[in-house]
Amino acid sequence: MNLSVVDFLFYLFSTISVGGGVCVVLSRNPVNAAMFMILSLVGVASLFVLLEAFFLAVLQVLVYAGAIMVLFLFIIMLLDVGPDAGKDAKWSKKGFLRGFAGLLCVGLFTVLTLEYADVAVDSASEWRPVKEEASVEGDQIVFSKSVKSFGYGLFTKYMLPLQVAGFLLLAAMVGVIVLSKRRGDEETEDVSSPSSEPEPEET
Fold first, then answer.
1. Which of 48, 60, 180, 202 is an S-S bond match for 53, by CB 3.0 to 4.6 Å?
2. What's 67's domain CATH number?
3. Residue ranges of region Disordered (predicted)?
4. In whole angstroms, what is the distance from residue 55 CA to residue 59 CA?
């Protein structure tokens, strides 16, 4: 089996992306998990470079691996989440089934979303980069160097997936705020609770 340089780089960056995502899930230290997530995002950006989607690669590094991950690290440091925070969590059969059901629902929803948006690729040739002067109103799936054509496709043909992704990010942010507030309230109650030690008897 003869692999070209492009094929080798594709498998290398794919392994980095998937391996970084697995390490994010398995890492108990939140800071290490954030670092592995940055590694996974850099791998995805490298795949964009192979597709000659340089604008997407730059956005991936600057926005996700840069600003958003720095924000995550700031929140982790602010909440003072230690490496022993997840020791009490245990894998169970019920939790595995729930996770599998969640992934199945996400996959089904993604398929339905793509079907609704009429994003169907008949052959791999449609994913090849096109010339920059191609029409932005065509039916081809375009990985163009033009920011105009990328923005036009993002806010017209792919509007529904964009809104769904934004809603999921908003729900995740609200969930983090609620969980952090609940944890802070519990710690405040523990500190303000009176001591249960018996008072010494007077002689």
1. 48
2. 1.20.120.1200
3. 183-203
4. 6
Overall pTM > 0.70: no
What is the spatial distance between Cα 189 and Cα 143, in angstroms, rounded to a whole number?
54
- What is the extent of the structural domain holding 21? 1-89
Instruction: Flag residues of the chain having pLDDT under 50.
Output: 85-91, 118-142
Residue 24 amino acid letter? V
| Rounded distance between C-alpha atoms, residue 38 and residue 61, angstroms | 9
Q: Six-digit token pair at 51? A: 């597709």
Q: Are 161 and 113 in contact (CB under 8 A)?
A: yes
Instruction: Decide if 144 contacts 130 (C-beta within 8 A).
Output: yes
Query: How many domains does the chain contain in total?
Result: 1
Neighbouring residues of 46: CB distance < 8 A, sequence distance ≥ 6 = 9, 13, 16, 57
